[in-house]
Amino acid sequence: MPEPGTGRGDQLLTVDGVRVAIGGGRTEAVHGVSFEVRRGEAVGIVGESGSGKTLVCRSVLGVLAPGCAVTAGTIDFAGTSLVGLPRRAWEQLRGTRISAVFQDPASYLNPSQTVGHQLAEQLRVKVGKPRREARTAAVALFDAMGLHEPERVYHQYPHELSGGMLQRVVLAIAVSGEPELLVADEATTALDVTIQAEVLELLGRLRRERGLAVLAVSHDLAVIAELCDRVLVFYAGELVETGPTAEVLDSPRHPYTEALLRVASVGDWDRRTPDVIDGEPPPVGAEIRGCRFADRCDFAAPQCRSGPVPLTEQAPDRAVRCVRASEIALSGAGAIGAGAAV
């Protein structure tokens, strides 16, 4: 279970009206997304491939691929505006106040250097520790990450370690600068069930011990249920539902969230190959007048296609982008998620 979040007024990250274009600016893939992450809080982003969740996270990190750009909106991190931040300022921010872990840890490590050397170098460059002190701190950090025989691990190369061990090494590097925010983009996807659970437990412990805020991206609702206080549901470049994780999973208010729950493995860690939702998302950049989910939705009505659908607050900390949300809730459409283990 995730730890309780902090108070509403303690925002660390604020994303407001962000739009992201790809293809050299020709195609808009993220359409005016807004959310916040509070200090010490874990917020999860879920959605199908192509929903815009990774584009948003890479916008937060300032590492969008060439041809991609934030075209509108603001991203504020503890009073610092991140959109258009100069490279030198990013170098001071990344690895110290903001860090990240991604799906394939081996691709972010130098295969020709021991993992201990790479962590010690991070401690020297980003934290300013002397060489000998950095080595001692690196071994201690490997131990804190749950790596057995940390002194031996220090001298090993990436190819000598398992996937789970590599992810712990990358986590050690990510938290070595005592960041306030960790962005975890599909960080457990490539791991088997047992190792995945161990890494999620480690992330929870890092939150408790370090006051770390986490922005976690996953296509897997079971991961979000285990780790996150709040969940943001993305569909076709829009935020369609948000709220406390337990509430959203127990009683979804958007038909897409309900569909995700119907095919997901929440509460069943032995079923790690989720089913799929019928139909396909609209092409990236498609101009759609109304609800972007309408063509796949069992509850679609004429008013769903008549005009833009705003994200509407339904209750404190709950919002949904659906003109029929109150009717669907009353009809019991969200009962699929009830009783799911979170």
From TrEMBL:
Subcellular localization(s) per the UniProt record: Cell membrane
InterPro entries (UniProt xref): AAA+_ATPase (IPR003593), ABC_Ni/Peptide_Import (IPR050388), ABC_transporter-like_ATP-bd (IPR003439), ABC_transporter-like_CS (IPR017871), Oligopep_ABC_C (IPR013563), P-loop_NTPase (IPR027417)
GO terms for MF: ATP binding; ATP hydrolysis activity
Residue ranges of every copy of the ABC transporter domain listed in the record: 13-261
Alphabetical keyword list: ATP-binding, Cell inner membrane, Cell membrane, Membrane, Nucleotide-binding, Translocase, Transport
Top-rank taxon: Bacteria
GO BP annotation list: peptide transport
SUPFAM superfamilies for this protein: P-loop containing nucleoside triphosphate hydrolases
Primary site of residence: membrane
Topology of this chain in the membrane: Peripheral membrane protein
GO-annotated cellular components: plasma membrane
Family, per entry: Belongs to the ABC transporter superfamily.
Record protein name field: Peptide ABC transporter ATP-binding protein
UniProt organism field: Parafrankia soli
